[in-house]
Specification:
This protein has 257 residues and is an all-alpha fold. It has two domains: 101 residues, no CATH class; 134 residues, no CATH class. The protein is built from nine helices and no strands. It binds zinc ion. Zinc ion binds next to loops. Zinc ion (ZN) binds next to loops.
């Protein structure tokens, strides 16, 4: 029974992953998310149902549009596979209402993170839509599970430290360092991660961002008019802290001692 449910959780994840691809593509373009059928971005043909099966369609079409044969990005099956595996991995071994609730909570966070990640890569935007959705998930959870001083301090730290750094950077260099979306994301994550955790997120994501930035400059992938998206670094570090909290906590205690 439980094994069967795990398989279902994988299939459920794959299907949600397919929907996340639609969100990643349409949300920044302000297109309708539900009622229009998917079409090829090259030839504009409406996809058949069998063009829309997660992973399998990509393999069976050999990564090409069923009509015009233009290449389909490998990112579509990657997002589907990632979402499927995360759902499978998060699904509880023992079933109870509480465990299922936690599964949906963490899976929903993972889904927002995936959309944020790829939209920021493509458009350099952490959309308010997704930040608000994240806030709606995190705030009630933190309200129930943590002492008010924990989430309130976390949120304040997460919002005001990056804001202060950005303001100082602007005063000193006349450049805007972090985007508004980055600052809001830090603030929302602060509610969940608490003051120490969010301090750690800010520190580590700046470190990771710097490493990625230097690597990209080294390989000539970064120019003045094509700066780096910082969101993916924040999301990678926050994922580490939220989904591998045991290891993140070990690193954190090691760091602060
Ligand atoms: Zn096509």
């Amino acid at each position: 029974m439980e094994e069967l449910l795990s398989i279902y959780s994988l299939i459920f994840g794959l299907l949600i992953g397919s929907f996340l691809n639609v969100v990643i593509y349409r949300l920044p373009l302000k297109k309708d998310l539900t009622f229009t059928r998917s079409m090829c971005s090259n030839c504009g043909n409406t996809l058949k149902w069998y063009h829309n099966i997660p992973i399998f369609s990509f393999l069976f079409l050999r990564g090409k549009c069923g009509f015009c044969k233009s290449r389909i990005s490998w990112r579509y099956p990657l997002v589907e596979l990632m979402t499927g595996l995360i759902s499978f991995w998060l699904f509880p071994n023992t079933l109870s209402a509480e465990m299922l609730g936690l599964y949906f909570f963490y899976f929903a966070i993972a889904c927002v993170f995936i959309c944020h990640f790829f939209i920021d890569l493509d458009h350099h935007l952490l959309l308010d839509h997704l930040n608000i959705y994240l806030l709606i998930l995190i705030l009630p959870y933190s309200f129930i599970h943590f002492h008010w001083s924990y989430w309130l301090a976390g949120g304040a730290f997460g919002f005001f430290i990056p804001l202060l750094v950005t303001w100082l950077f602007y005063k000193l260099r006349g450049q805007v360092g972090l985007g508004g979306g980055d600052i809001k994301l830090f603030g929302i994550l602060g509610f969940l991660l608490g003051p120490t955790g969010i301090f750690f997120t800010i520190f580590l994501s700046c470190l990771l961002g710097a490493i990625v930035g230097i690597t990209l400059i080294f390989f000539n992938k970064l120019t003045k008019d094509r700066p780096m998206a910082f969101g993916p670094s924040i999301l990678a570090i926050a994922s580490f802290q939220i989904f591998l909290s045991e290891y993140a906590f070990k690193l954190q205690t090691w760091f602060f001692n």
